[in-house]
Amino acid sequence: MTGSGNNTYLLTGRGGSATLVDAGIGDARHLSALAAAIGGGRLDAVLVTHGHRDHAAGAVAIAAAHPAATFSKLPWPEEDAQYDVPWRRLADGDIVRAGDEPLQALHTPGHSPDHLAFWHQPSATIFTGDLVVQGSSVMIHWSRGGNLAQYLASLERLLSLEPRRLLPGHGPAIDDPRAILSGYLEHRRQRERQVLDALRTGHATVQAIAESIYDGLAPALMPAAQENVRAHLEKLKTERLVTHEHDRWTPS
Ligand SMILES: [Zn+2]
Question: Which residues surround ligand 1, an ion (CB under 5 A)?
Fold first, then answer.
């Protein structure tokens, strides 16, 4: 599901102190590119947006190659334990130094419970992890801690900062943040209407709803589509717009 791979971002200060946003997976090519980019400097810190493997698993290999580096994220204990480095705890609002610049951690859950974005106020840039991907939509894995209502609130929070640039964990930099964030919010509102329509026309299970909405989707992508439908249903349930008994869902 990671498409063309994932991005990490290296911020280097005048004194040679470097900070990496996201750890990748520990791929040898990434490690050598990282060493080359640091040059004569020193990797002091790795800030991890969230505990998904493609963002956090590389911490172990980076720790071996850069013993001075600290590793920080918002805790998600059962996931973080897979990556054996001494994690430092970040919380919403914390300011960390990256190179010579301040970054503010923004707890932006929804894609995962531990998700952080990093806000560089002086340049109105946000390192957005997995909140947005140009030309694609973001997975909300309900069965792995995803929460659609939280995700939408996180997108609104990014919008309210009026960023000029988003630097995501996958895909290219985004220079029109308002367009993509508003587009995402509208897309989810539309999806929600489709889920409600499917329920009203008698589709009662996650599978039936997913098949009616994602008609013609490649079978390999259907589990992800079902996770997405489930995330919508759980949001609607919280809003008391739907109820369910076992695996059968009905509009309230
Ligand atoms: Zn992720």
Answer: 52, 130
